[in-house]
């Protein structure tokens, strides 16, 4: 339980089955969460990121952020969910986040990447939020499988808020594009060229060692229904 409270651990901690929101403010009745991120201490700073859109095969299909597995549910089951007032959407990113292609990206073949890219064209884009350190990890991984990709994301103001804040609040908007050799060829922050320190220290570097070893964050999906509660996710 200490991992989620401090913010040093998400996946693999005692949040399973709880729909517990760690990042962006706790939804627990009594306990806080992710205190290191909330107070932006050391490598846990950077705030919360909302991924607005990306054509990255690595992010959208291979790691399958934010884990949309709705197609795996039988239509009869979805009909029952709809009758009960459920959105009929099912999200669980744990399998892909912890899968072997992520641990051993060198196992990915060109054929798998091409087939995944073709499937990616038919997958609807679903926005989601993650800590800045996990976006840095995703960008690093996508660059190192020699993928050309674009990504648009927003940095949220502050470190905590409600679901409308998570869905719409924006401190700054970023647009980036990497070519197939892993070089950043386009970068805008609020329609102005990106800061050189940001390029060097965020886009061209990895998260801190302790984050890579201990913290894999669950992506939180955003549905376009102005919901006031976090949509259920996980196993």
Helices and strands in order:
Blueprint: H1 2-6, H2 35-38, E1 48-54, H3 57-62, H4 75-83, H5 94-97, H6 100-103, H7 110-120, E2 128-131, H8 132-143, E3 149-155, H9 163-168, E4 172-178, E5 184-189, E6 192-193, H10 196-203, H11 209-214, E7 220-221
Antiparallel strand pairs: 1-2, 1-3, 2-7, 3-4, 4-5, 5-6
Kindly list the characteristics that best describe this protein.
alpha+beta; 235 residues; 11 helices; 32% helix; globular; 7-stranded antiparallel β-sheet
Short description:
The protein has 235 residues and is of the alpha+beta class.
Description:
The chain is of the alpha+beta class. It is 32% helix and 15% strand. It has helices at 2-6, 35-38, 57-62, 75-83, 94-97, 100-103, 110-120, 132-143, 163-168, 196-203, 209-214, and strands spanning 48-54, 128-131, 149-155, 172-178, 184-189, 192-193, 220-221. Strands 6-5-4-3-1-2-7 form a 7-stranded antiparallel sheet. β5 and β6 (192-193) form a beta hairpin. The model has no long low-confidence stretch (mean pLDDT 83).
